[in-house]
C-alpha cells in the first residue's frame, strides 16, 4: 500500500502531518508500533508510552529495513539514512489510528459500530447487546475487557480497549468472517490515547460515572476522566446515555450527535417501572416493565438495579437494529456474562455467584445489591492481589465486614507476597467492624467450606476472580477457574454424602 493512501484521512482530519524526507509514493508492506515486528518495508510509528518511548528504537527499525518512520514533532532533528521516508506529526497515536484504519481498508465503515463507555456496566452491556443481535441473526463481533470475539474465535484481552492497530485488525477479521456489527467497550484510557480516533460510531453509549482510574499513568483528575468519556459523543451518530446519572449532562454537553436517554426516572426516553425482585430456590432475578420508545415486559435472571440499567441500555441500542421483540425478551432473560454476577447452580437451598468485584467500590456495590434480597445470610468469599496497595485490602475487609454476615478470607493472586500476610491485612480492615470471618488460604478449600456450610436462603458471593482462569504465584500463572473448582468441590461433597 502506498504511504499516500495511509495518510490521506489523517491529513484530512486536521492533524499536522509533514513529509520531512522521502516520498508519499513509498510502498508500505506492514504497519506497527512494536519495533520487534518491523520487517523489510514496514512503516514504524513511534509511540511515547508510559513505560517506553518508540523513538528509542529508531536505529533498530532502520536496521530491520523499515521503509517509513512516523515520529512525534521535535524528534526529526537527527540524521536519517537514504531510503527512509520520514513523517513528522503532532500526534503519533492519532497517526497510528488513522493509518491502521486505512491499512485494513477502513473496516469500521463496513460494520454497524457500537461503542460503550462508563465506569461500570460496560462489560455486561456489551454481552447483552451481542447476544440479542446474534439471536436475531445479526452476526456481531465483540471487543472488551474479557475477550475479543470474532465468529467462533475468541482471544483473551490485555486491555479493555486495545491499541488502534489491533482494533482495526479485528474489525477487518470481523468483516471477513461475515459480521454485520460490532459492540466494543471504549475505556477512558482508550479515548485519551486516541485508540478509537477516526472511528465514527453508529451508536455511542454512556452507562455511568464514578471516581475511578485516577492516579499515575491513568487520569490526573476526575475532570479529565469525565472529559475523556465525553470524547465518545463527538465521534458518534447517536448517543444513548443513562439519564439518571448525575454526570450525564456534563458528559454530553459538547455532544455532536442526537441523544436518547434511558433510566428509571421520568423524562427518559426509555424507562423501567414496576421493578420486582425475585429470590427463590437458588435463583435471583427481577422483572420490570419497559416503557417509552419501546413497551414490553422484561424478566432477568440477574440481580440488582444495575442489571435494570444494563438491560435498558441493551434494549435502547438493539431497538435501532429493529430486533424481534420476543427474541429480545428471551435473550435478556437467559443472558450470562462470565464472572459478572454469574450465577452457578449448586443447590435449591441457597444461591452462589461469581463476580469480578476486586476493589472496595465494586464489592460494596454487589453486596449492597444482594442485601436488598434479604438473604438468610450474605456470605462473601474473597482475597486480594499481592504486590498491590495495602489500602485496597483494608478497604475491602472493612466493606465485607460491614455488609456480609460471614466473610471467608482466602487467596487471590498472591504474586510475590505470602498469602498469609495478605490475609492479615484484610483482617485489619474487618477488625474495624463486628463482622464474622473465617480464614482459609487455599481457595478451593474456601469454596468447599462455603458450599458445604450453605444454609437455606443464603446468598454466597465468590468475589475477585471473575472471568480470570489462573492464579499468579511467584511470577507463574497456574490454571485456576472457579467454575472448575466448584465442579470439583461438588463431586467431592456428593461422594462424601452431601445432599445439597
Describe this structure in words.
With 500 residues, the protein is an alpha/beta fold. It has three domains: 101 residues, 3-Layer(aba) Sandwich (Udp-n-acetylmuramoylalanyl-d-glutamate--2,6- Diaminopimelate Ligase, Chain: A, domain 1); 228 residues, UDP-N-acetylmuramoyl-L-alanine:D-glutamate ligase (3-Layer(aba) Sandwich); 154 residues, Mur ligase, C-terminal domain (Protein-Tyrosine Phosphatase, Chain A, Alpha-Beta Complex), CATH 3.90.190. Strands 9-8-7-10-6-11-12-13-14-15-16 form an eleven-stranded mixed β-sheet, with helices on both faces. The chain has a six-stranded mixed β-sheet with strand order 17-18-22-19-20-21, with helices on both faces. α13 links the parallel β20 and β21. α11 packs parallel to α12. The model has no long low-confidence stretch (mean pLDDT 95).
Number of strands: 24
Q: Could you give a short account of the major beta sheet?
A: 11 strands, mixed
Spatial order of the strands forming the largest sheet: 9-8-7-10-6-11-12-13-14-15-16
- Uncertain segments: none
Q: Architecture of the largest domain, CATH level 2?
A: 3-Layer(aba) Sandwich
The CATH class of the largest domain is: Alpha Beta
How much is the radius of gyration in Å? 25 Å
Question: CATH superfamily membership of the largest domain, which one?
Answer: Mur-like, catalytic domain
From the N-terminal CA to the C-terminal CA, the straight-line distance is 63 Å
The structural class is: alpha/beta
By DSSP (H or I, 4+ residues per run), the number of helices equals 15
Count of domains: 3
Summed over residues and divided by their number, the pLDDT gives a mean of 95
Strand content: 15-25%
Per CATH, what is the topology of the largest domain? UDP-N-acetylmuramoyl-L-alanine:D-glutamate ligase
Q: State the helical fraction.
A: 25-40%
Amino acid at each position: 500500500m502506498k504511504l499516500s493512501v495511509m495518510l490521506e484521512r489523517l491529513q484530512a482530519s486536521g492533524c499536522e502531518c509533514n513529509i520531512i524526507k522521502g516520498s508519499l509514493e513509498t510502498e508500505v508492506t506492514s504497519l506497527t508500533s512494536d519495533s520487534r515486528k518491523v520487517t523489510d518495508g514496514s512503516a514504524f510509528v513511534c509511540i511515547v508510552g508510559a513505560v517506553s518511548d518508540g523513538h528509542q528504537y529508531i536505529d533498530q527499525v532502520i536496521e530491520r529495513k523499515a521503509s517509513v518512520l512516523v515520529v512525534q514533532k521535535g524528534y526529526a532533528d537527527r540524521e536519517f539514512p537514504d531510503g527512509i521516508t520520514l513523517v513528522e506529526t503532532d500526534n503519533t497515536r492519532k497517526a497510528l489510528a488513522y493509518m491502521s484504519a486505512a491499512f485494513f481498508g477502513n473496516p469500521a465503515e463496513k460494520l454497524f459500530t457500537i461503542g460503550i463507555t462508563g465506569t461500570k456496566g460496560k462489560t455486561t452491556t456489551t454481552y447483552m447487546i451481542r447476544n440479542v443481535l446474534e439471536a436475531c441473526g445479526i452476526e456481531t463481533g465483540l471487543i472488551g475487557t474479557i475477550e475479543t470475539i470474532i465468529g467462533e474465535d475468541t482471544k483473551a484481552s490485555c486491555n479493555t480497549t486495545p491499541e488502534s492497530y489491533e482494533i482495526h485488525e479485528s474489525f477487518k477479521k470481523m468483516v471477513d468472517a461475515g459480521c454485520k456489527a460490532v459492540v466494543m467497550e471504549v475505556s477512558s484510557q482508550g479515548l485519551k490515547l486516541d485508540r478509537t480516533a477516526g472511528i465514527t460510531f453508529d451508536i455511542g453509549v454512556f452507562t455511568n460515572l464514578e471516581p475511578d482510574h485516577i492516579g499515575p499513568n491513568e487520569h490526573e483528575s476526575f475532570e479529565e476522566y469525565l472529559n475523556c468519556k465525553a470524547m465518545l459523543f463527538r465521534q458518534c451518530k447517536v448517543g444513548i446515555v443513562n439519564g439518571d446519572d448525575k454526570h450525564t449532562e456534563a458528559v454530553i454537553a459538547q455532544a455532536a450527535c442526537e441523544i436518547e436517554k434511558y433510566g428509571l426516572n421520568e423524562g427518559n426516553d426509555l424507562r423501567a417501572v414496576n421493578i420486582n425482585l425475585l429470590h427463590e430456590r437458588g435463583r435471583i432475578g427481577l422483572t420490570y416493565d419497559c416503557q417509552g420508545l419501546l413497551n414490553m415486559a422484561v424478566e432477568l435472571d440477574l440481580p440488582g438495579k444495575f442489571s435494570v440499567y444494563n438491560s435498558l441500555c441493551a434494549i435502547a441500542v438493539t431497538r435501532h437494529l429493529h430486533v424481534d421483540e420476543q427474541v429480545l425478551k428471551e435473550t435478556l432473560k437467559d443472558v450470562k456474562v462470565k464472572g459478572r454476577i454469574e450465577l452457578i447452580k449448586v443447590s435449591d437451598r441457597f444461591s452462589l455467584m461469581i463476580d469480578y468485584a476486586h476493589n472496595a467500590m465494586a464489592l460494596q456495590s454487589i453486596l449492597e445489591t444482594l442485601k436488598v434480597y434479604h438473604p438468610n445470610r450474605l456470605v462473601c468469599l474473597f482475597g486480594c492481589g499481592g504486590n498491590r496497595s495495602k489500602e485496597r485490602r483494608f478497604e475491602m475487609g472493612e466493606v465485607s465486614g460491614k455488609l456480609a454476615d460471614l466473610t471467608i478470607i482466602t487467596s487471590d493472586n498472591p504474586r510475590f507476597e505470602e498469602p498469609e500476610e495478605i490475609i492479615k491485612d484484610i483482617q485489619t480492615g474487618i477488625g474495624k467492624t463486628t463482622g464474622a470471618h473465617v480464614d482459609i488460604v487455599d481457595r478451593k478449600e474456601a469454596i468447599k467450606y462455603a458450599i458445604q456450610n450453605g444454609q437455606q436462603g443464603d446468598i454466597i458471593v465468590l468475589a475477585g476472580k471473575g472471568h480470570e482462569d489462573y492464579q499468579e504465584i511467584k511470577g507463574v500463572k497456574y490454571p485456576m477457574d472457579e467454575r472448575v473448582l466448584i465442579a470439583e468441590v461438588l463431586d467431592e461433597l456428593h461422594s462424601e454424602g452431601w445432599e445439597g
